[in-house]
Specification:
The protein has 16 helices and 14 strands. The chain is an alpha/beta fold and 438 residues long. The protein folds into two domains: 13-377, Divalent-metal-dependent TIM barrel enzymes (TIM Barrel, Alpha-Beta Barrel); 381-437, no CATH class. The strands form four sheets. The chain has an eight-stranded parallel barrel with strand order 5-6-7-8-10-12-13-14, surrounded by five helices. Helix 3 packs parallel to helix 5 and helix 11 crosses helix 12 (350-377). It starts with 12 loop residues before the first strand and ends with a helix. The protein binds D-xylulose and cobalt (II) ion. Residues 189, 233, 269, 297, 340 line the site of cobalt (II) ion. The active site is at 102, 105.
């Protein structure tokens, strides 16, 4: 490989919290054993190809500000290779175990469907070669079924069945490529699966189409023996006014309807949770309780802005609560923590990408270490258990298990003339408990 824009940077190393180096990890000691295994295996960080290698700083009001060498090449396939060379050099410098991509991040769209598919296979072979000499593995692959104008009215939920077929074909090939590259998951984010106005939309048809598409994905997964997880990524709005995969609870209802709740899990993104009016930990805890916690897209939004700013995380408090719920859920299994986050438009240097990831990695590692302590201490969990302790009494267990009909509950309650007393929820005490560990 020739020179890349990251060639001059040495591998970012763990130097400890005393270090004042800007290009070192201060909390992410990948080999440190916590809760029985190395941090690297708990956190399973991934670099997102689209934000780190493709994003050029343009926004609705302004032209690109970030100019990478491969963005100026006229030969699109050569540009894709140069981009891949830079990507793997970035993975080398950051020394993170995983990456993620959309088909359109790694390959240019062709003139025709066939050409797009050929490009995809050519470039994924190139990535496979790069992976032979890299430690970085594929956390997940996905299809970009939202950028091209053909997907303007949706992919699976498009009124035009040809767009559905085009999308199914593209997903099939992206799944083939994800399997070939050893991907641990395959993600579906419903980019434009939603609507702008109900005036032109049949909700009934579109949800049926979406159910059919996901069923096809699951069927194909089994047909090709892809051992990874299939993940849906909820988001309530943007780009459409209403996105069908609104949040975890909505996705679960959709999965139940199509009998897919044991086949598909969720990839939860911090800022998507915020846009849905939830905290990240709400989404994590909900998914864990429903048995569909798959993977995480780590980022943050801006509470003052109602759109998807995809910033690198900086808030230790909220990240600690998220990590606590990941730990309580027993970890992420084959999922991981993908930095679905981009540098700001004015952060134009390659080095800015390093600072961004180092900050995000350290923030998550630090939050995880704190959450692990809270978990190991057990006090928080004990106080919660204690709050529900009444349910351990045999008669209340029977009531919850549906073994007591309404009249029996009434008879028992009336006979004892029960008089429940309000009990403190101890919120401030628990907030102090978290702060004591921070
Ligand atoms: C969009 C988003 C996507 C998905 C993958 O908000 O999060 O980048 O993660 O398509
Ligand atoms: Co995402």
């Amino acid at each position: 490989m020739g020179q890349s824009i990251f060639s001059s940077f040495p591998v970012v190393e763990y130097k400890g919290t005393e270090s004042t180096s800007d290009l070192a990890y201060r909390w992410y000691d990948a080999d440190r054993t916590v809760l029985g295994k190395p941090l690297r295996e708990h956190l399973r960080f991934a670099v997102a190809y689209w934000h780190s290698l493709v994003m050029n700083g343009s926004d609705p009001f302004g032209a690109p500000t970030i100019n990478r060498p491969w963005m100026n090449r006229t030969d699109a396939m050569q540009a894709a290779q140069d981009k891949a060379d830079a990507a793997f050099d970035l993975f080398r410098v950051l020394d993170l175990p995983f990456y993620t991509f959309h088909d359109r991040d790694i390959t240019p769209d062709g003139e025709t469907l066939r050409e797009s598919i050929t490009n995809l296979h050519t470039m994924s072979d190139y990535l496979a070669k790069k992976m032979e000499s890299s430690k970085t593995r594929l956390l997940w692959g996905t299809a970009n079924l939202f950028s091209h104008p053909r997907f303007m009215s949706g992919a699976a939920t498009n009124p035009d069945p040809e767009v559905f077929a085009y999308s199914a074909t593209t997903i099939k090939h992206c799944m083939d490529v994800t399997k070939k590259l050893g991907g641990e998951n395959y993600v579906l984010w419903g980019g434009r699966e939603g609507y702008e106005t109900l005036l032109n939309t049949s909700l009934k048809r579109e949800l049926e189409q979406m159910g059919r598409m996901l069923t096809l994905v699951v069927e194909y997964k089994h047909k090709i023996g892809f051992s990874g997880q299939i993940l849906l990524e909820p988001k309530p709005k943007e780009p459409t006014v209403h996105q069908y995969d609104f949040d975890t609870a909505t996705v679960f209802g959709f999965l139940k309807r199509f009998g897919l709740e044991n086949e598909v899990k969720v990839n939860l993104e911090a800022n998507h949770a915020l846009l849905a009016g939830h905290t990240f930990e709400h989404e994590i805890a909900t998914a864990a309780d429903l048995g569909i916690l798959g993977s995480l897209d780590i980022n943050r939004g801006d509470p003052l802005l109602g759109w998807d700013t995809d910033q690198f995380p900086t808030d230790l408090y909220s990240m600690t609560l998220a990590m606590y719920h990941v730990i309580q859920a027993g970890g992420l299994g084959r999922g991981g923590m993908n930095f679905d986050a981009k540098v700001r438009r004015q952060s134009t240097e390659p080095e800015d990408l390093l600072h961004a990831h180092i900050g995000g990695v350290d923030m998550c590692a630090r939050a995880f270490l704190i959450a692990a302590k809270i978990h190991e201490e057990g006090r928080l969990a004990d106080i919660v258990d204690e709050r529900y302790a009444g349910w351990n009494l045999p008669e209340n267990k029977a009531m919850l298990a549906g073994k007591e009909p309404p009249e029996a509950i009434a008879a028992r309650s009336e006979e004892r003339n029960i008089n429940p007393q309000p009990r403190s929820g101890r919120q401030e005490q628990l907030e102090n408990l978290i702060n004591r560990h921070l």
